[in-house]
Amino acid sequence: MIFSICDDIITISTFKISREQAKVMNPKIFVGIAVAALTAILGGILLMGPTMIVESQDEAFYETQNAIQVEPLQVELDEISVIKISERSATIKIAFKISNPNPAAVIVQTMDYQLFETGFSEYEQMSGGQIGSRPEGMVEFGSNYYVLLGDNSIILKDTISLKNSGNTPELWANLEDGSSTWRVTGDVFYNLSSMTSGQENVLHFEFTK
């Protein structure tokens, strides 16, 4: 309400704000408050900066030192001998000793080997074989693999049957008189934990006898 005096006449004017004007002003006020709050938050983040946690070099060093050191398996040629021979065929027995120097058990999947009679040929393979089996997909019950406990050893054996073709008389003569000289090469495939987890390891070997 406004009072004015002009020529001894008092005039009274009434000033009112319509509802429409109030509705227009209120959103502007709220937008201004929101902008001010957002500006304050961004300013606080810029002042504080990002937070980063860095592992100390000492902690990383001790974790490395405490990691388990896994030793490879040890393979030995335990036996190779001609146990039976005739003019038509021969039977050879071969055995390998596999030792696990680790405290934890390992799973030996297969051993592949190649046999050479070096008195006959240094490079022509006479025979070979596979002991065990490498599973494909899911492991089935009764799979032919070997669990080798920690600080223990196992003997893997195989029997080789040869037929005399008549084309290698020198080889057959060496087998008959026991003067054969042998070279055996191959690979052992094993896992450190289980058949379905962990990385497969391969150990190559070569023996002469």
Give structural notes:
This protein is α+β, with helices and mostly antiparallel strands. The protein has a domain at 74-208: Sandwich (Immunoglobulin-like). It has 3 helices and 10 strands; from the N terminus they run ββααββββββαββ. The chain has helices at 19-48, 57-66, 169-177; strands at residues 2-6, 9-13, 74-85, 89-100, 106-117, 127-132, 146-148, 152-163, 182-191, 200-208. The strands form 3 sheets. Strands 5, 6, 7, 9 and 10 form a 5-stranded antiparallel beta sheet that branches. The longest helix is centred in the first third of the chain and has 30 residues, at 19-48. It is elongated. 12% of the residues are buried. Residues 2-20, 50-55, 60-66 and 137-141 have low confidence and may be disordered.
What descriptive keywords fit this protein?
about 210 residues; alpha+beta; Immunoglobulin-like; five-stranded antiparallel sheet; three-stranded antiparallel sheet; 3 helices; about 40% strand; disordered N terminus
In summary, what is this structure?
By secondary structure, the protein is α+β, with helices and mostly antiparallel strands.
The computed structural class is alpha+beta
**SSE ordering:** EEHHEEEEEEHEE
User: What is the number of beta strands?
Assistant: 10
Helix content: 10-25%
What CATH calls the topology of one domain is: Immunoglobulin-like
Shape: elongated
CATH homologous superfamily designation of one domain: Immunoglobulins
Evaluate the radius of gyration: 43 Å
Distance between the termini: 122 Å
